[in-house]
Amino acid sequence: MDTEIVQAADLKKVDPVFGQLSFNDHEQIVFCHDKDTGLKAIIGIHNTVLGPALGGTRMWNYDNEWEALNDVLRLSRGMTFKSAITGLNLGGGKAVIIGDAKTQKTPELMRKFGEFVNSLGGKYITAEDVGMETSDMDIVHEVTSHVTGISESKGGSGNPSPITAFGVFMGMKAAVNYKFGSQTMEGKKVLVQGVGHVGASLVEHLYKEGAQILISDINQEKLLELSKKYQATIVPGDEIFNQELDVYAPCALGATINDSTVNTIKTKVIAGAANNQLADEKYHGKILMERGIAYAPDFLINAGGIINVYAELEGYGKDEILQKTKNIYNTTLDIFNYAEENQITTHQAALNKAQERIDNQKLASKK
Ligand code: NAD
What we know:
This protein is of the alpha/beta class. It has helices at residues 2-13, 65-86, 107-119, 134-141, 161-180, 197-208, 220-230, 281-290, 298-301, 304-314, 318-326, 328-342, 346-366; strands spanning 28-34, 39-47, 53-54, 57-60, 91-98, 124-125, 189-193, 212-216, 233-234, 247-250, 269-270, 294-295. The strands form 2 sheets. Strands 1, 2, 3, 4, 5 and 6 form a 6-stranded mixed sheet that branches. A hairpin with a 4-residue loop joins strand 1 and strand 2 (39-47). Helix 3 (107-119) packs across helix 4 and helix 10 runs antiparallel to helix 11 (318-326). Nicotinamide-adenine-dinucleotide is lined by residues 160-161, 164, 193-199, 216-219, 222, 237, 251-253, 273-275, 302, 305.
């Protein structure tokens, strides 16, 4: 009896879904379960005012379901703002599959997941994310048309990473222009943390423009390969925040700007591909602003990937993808100026502009 009372009281304290800290007026949250394949997934549809909610599916071995729910709520909200600020007619959504992508992902599980996506009738459109490959999206495509990021041979747009890297490069150049009044990256000291799919491609752009390149990764082989190819200096992970830099480009993990780094980092600009670079958007964003560090909002400058998959829905080609991605330069510069005029952080400025577009569309559709 006592246990029942305690449980009831605890349940009242934290409502399981709408009471979550990451809940942000999400429109729909779908819990998907299939006993035969072992599928446990959550689809988060944050907002569909501008269009169908598009966002990748992440497969991750979450410690518990709260973590998975928190992730899908957070990530789907991020997609709403990413698409809105990029000018795409898309809403924000995301899905998570609970499990180890290396050992628990099977074609049957992916097909079942595709059936759940299909049951939403196009309100949510899926794509690749961490733990997913193009081949997984091809399997999902067998049971639903509401999927992007399928292989080029099947009419898809292929690997988005080079486009993402190009967009990050454009955003970085805008930030450098804003901060230094410089049109080129020539001679700028840039540290790229994480030289995976996006980071390596970013390094190539920087090399071609004559930047002074520093690289850091946990993959030693990759570091040696790139340092040779692009005359880049290797920096151990624990020395990143001691370097005097012009640009810090986080392209590995999120939350690298946190309580222990935000006051010590020695850079003029932060512009990278990683999602959720600020551990606390408001708090750390404000400290960067006070320190005069120009932060290019991650969800704005890493939008090349979504521009790339959006092409599959709209049927436009590579030229238009590149054109739209190049425009990240103009949007980033606008955001820096708008933030300065309004004395707000660049992160908040980008959120405001994205929200403005959603609100205008909402108003227009009511007329
Ligand atoms: P990736 O897995 O190919 O590369 C990540 C790299 O980071 C790897 O080389 C890995 O060894 C390295 N790394 C991991 N932990 C590290 C650590 N502690 N310190 C230093 N390096 C570490 O991933 P990616 O596709 O290049 O994406 C990079 C980042 O950009 C991710 O945060 C991803 O969410 C984000 N992003 C990617 C895309 C895209 O199109 N691929 C689009 C938007 C955002």
